[in-house]
Design brief:
The chain has a single domain, classed as Acetylglutamate kinase-like (Carbamate kinase, 3-Layer(aba) Sandwich). Helix content is about 35%, strand content about 20%. It is built from 8 helices and 11 strands. It has a 9-stranded mixed β-sheet with strand order 4-3-5-2-1-6-10-11-9, sandwiched between helices. The longest helix has 25 residues.
């Protein structure tokens, strides 16, 4: 089975909105479903690190617009990611997976501090590592934190889960003629202003040759297909000549 795998160590990025049916709060059945999808690839022997956003509870940039200090708003958002991470940890451990939550902001009664070498060791032992509190710095998104951790932990790919099955040249929810990219280069995505990840995260992946796969989290079996190297979603990698299929 292991010989069939394209990726052996992944960084999975989930938005906080993925945990709630309407993008708000936490929906227990949704969390359990996601945990079940992760278990499928964990049983294949995949080493899994995760970063979960906090937008289902708090989005720093939005609240900063109301007059709250931006750094303060971002720190509150980091705490929201810790809450989401603990909920996901609970769901995965109820399915028999061994997990560790590590936070960029130290809170020993709740989780381990992020220590790169310790995180790598957890992965090598088959533990799922959930990386919370972003990068620990305001003004940086959890997309950037995911890119940073993927590079630090020597992941082979960054998997970004979304509500659509890849990257399009327009919003497929509003434009039926929107065209999907099967593959696209980092610079093409940046130059076209496509909402793959924020520019800091995308540039970090480009500079460190970290491939990104954008896929639909709600598509059953998508994670298994990706780690086996099957075409699923959109691959962001070195520049390609004709990205639109």
């Amino acid at each position: 089975m292991a010989a069939e795998l394209k990726y052996r160590r992944i960084l999975l990025k989930l938005s906080g909105e993925a945990l709630g049916p309407e993008g708000y709060g936490i929906h227990a059945d949704t969390v359990r479903r996601i945990a079940g999808e992760i278990k499928h690839i964990h049983e294949l022997g995949i080493e899994i690190a995760m970063v979960i956003g906090g937008g289902n509870m708090w989005r720093g940039a939005d609240h900063a617009a109301t007059g709250i200090d931006r750094a303060t708003a971002d720190y509150v958002g980091m705490l929201a990611t810790v809450m989401n991470s603990l909920v996901m940890q609970d769901a995965m451990e109820k399915l028999g997976m061994t997990t560790r939550v590590q936070t960029a902001i130290e809170m020993p009664p709740v989780a381990e501090p992020f220590i790169r070498r310790r995180a790598v060791r957890h992965l090598e032992k088959g533990r799922v590592v959930i990386l919370a509190a972003g990068s620990g710095n305001p003004f940086f998104t959890t997309d950037t934190a995911a890119a940073l951790r993927a590079v630090e932990l020597n992941a082979q790919v960054l998997l970004k889960a979304t509500k659509v099955d890849g990257i399009y040249d327009d919003d497929p929810m509003r434009n039926a003629d929107a065209r999907k990219f099967e593959e696209i280069g980092y610079m093409q995505a940046l130059n076209m202003g496509l909402k793959v990840m924020d520019s800091t995260a995308l540039t970090l992946c480009k500079d460190n040759h970290m491939p990104i796969v954008v896929f639909n989290l709600q598509q059953q079996g998508a994670l298994v297909a990706i780690v086996r190297g099957e075409k699923c979603g959109t691959l962001v990698t070195s520049d390609v000549t004709d990205p639109v299929q």
